[in-house]
Amino acid sequence: MTGKLQDKVAVIGGGEKNLGGLLATTFAADGAKVVVHYHNDSSSAENTVKAVQQAGSQAVSVQGDLTQVSQVRRLFDQAVDSFGGIDVAVNTTGMVLRKPILETTEEEYDQMFGINAKAAYFFIQEAGRRLNDYGKIISLGTSLLAAFTDGYSTYAGGKAPLEHFTRAAAKEFADRHISVNTVAPGPMDTPFFYPQETPERVEFHKSMAMGNQLTRIEDIAPIIEFLATDGWWFTGQTMFPNGGYTSR
Ligand SMILES: NC(=O)c1ccc[n+]([C@@H]2O[C@H](COP(=O)([O-])OP(=O)(O)OC[C@H]3O[C@@H](n4cnc5c(N)ncnc54)[C@H](OP(=O)(O)O)[C@@H]3O)[C@@H](O)[C@H]2O)c1
């Protein structure tokens, strides 16, 4: 244990698997109690709760569709009920779609903006209400925010407002010393990434980064850990940890 988050409480949106799951055990190793939010995958959530406990800390899991504002509020209510307060709130939830604008339906648009923009907004709002002074709020964007590419209009477009939500919240919560940031990784080697891509495009994405490799969750977790601990002076920023990734 590093003890950097000793006696602190962390809420992780999408904390059951992939990047969120690794953050849960990383924060636990720093001494934090963890609230593991999940959407569909209760067995991953159970495993992550056990992994936090094995790391010597405490965890609870909370299910919720975070496109429903009432469920965002219930997540934070349950965190306070379980552990008495919240210090760190990380939202890793998101949904990806690669589809031309001319083929995108109204339902797809609403679903993509529901989880990537609306849920992210109300997660920040509730965190701003419920976090202790000196809290940390971190959202997950995508390096596509800095790219000029086709096919990702509703994914990159849905995540784009995060940069402005982050800046506004950083200003509005500064009087309570709460920092607010977005971390926007390059294409990351998790099951989230592959269904939208062809093998050729995966190779192309690898070729755009240092070392001919995709971003790994192990590359990103320490950056989020830094923002949640020693990096408290960063606020209102979007960071692009992407191994030099650029897109056409
Ligand atoms: N992998 C990449 O290439 C990549 C690159 C850059 C940025 N990112 C971003 O990094 C974050 C983590 O991605 P990841 O690769 O670790 O994949 P992931 O584990 O699949 O993360 C997405 C999470 O969002 C949850 N979610 C989806 N719809 C939801 C809803 N309506 N309500 C609540 N939760 C919902 C998913 O739960 P269910 O699966 O149960 O629906 C899942 O836990 C995402 O925000 C993603 O946009 C990913």
Would you kindly provide a written description of the structure presented here, covering whatever features stand out?
- This protein starts with 8 loop residues before the first strand and ends in a 9-residue tail after the last strand.
- The protein is globular and about 50 Å long.
- It has 248 residues and is of the alpha/beta class.
- Strand 2, helix 2 (42-54) and strand 3 form a beta-alpha-beta unit.
- Helix content is 42%, strand content 16%.
- It contains 8 helices and 7 strands; from the N terminus they run βαβαβαβαβααβααβ.
- The mean pLDDT is 96.
- The protein has a single domain, classed as NAD(P)-binding Rossmann-like Domain (Rossmann fold).
- It has a 7-stranded parallel beta sheet, with helices on both faces.
- The longest helix is centred in the middle third of the chain and has 25 residues, at 106-130.
- The structure holds NADP nicotinamide-adenine-dinucleotide phosphate.
- NADP nicotinamide-adenine-dinucleotide phosphate (NAP) binds next to helix 1.
What would you say about this model in short?
With 248 residues, this protein is α/β, with parallel strands linked by helices. It is built from 8 helices and 7 strands; from the N terminus they run βαβαβαβαβααβααβ. The N and C termini lie far apart (42 Å).
Which features characterize this protein?
seven-stranded parallel beta sheet; 8 helices; 248 residues; 7 strands
Oligomerization state: single chain
CATH architecture: 3-Layer(aba) Sandwich
The structural domain count equals 1
Distance between the termini: 42 Å
C-alpha-based Rg, rounded: 17 Å
Overall helicity: 40-55%
Return the average pLDDT rounded to an integer: 96
Could you please say which CATH topology applies here? Rossmann fold
The CATH homologous superfamily is called: NAD(P)-binding Rossmann-like Domain
Parts with pLDDT < 50 across at least 5 consecutive residues: none
**Looking at the structure, what is the overall shape?**
globular
**Strand/helix succession:** EHEHEHEHEHHEHHE
The SS-based structural class is alpha/beta
**Approximate strand percentage:** 15-25%
Provide the CATH top-level class.
Answer: Alpha Beta
Q: Count up the helices.
A: 8
How many β strands by DSSP? 7
Major sheet characteristics: 7 strands, parallel
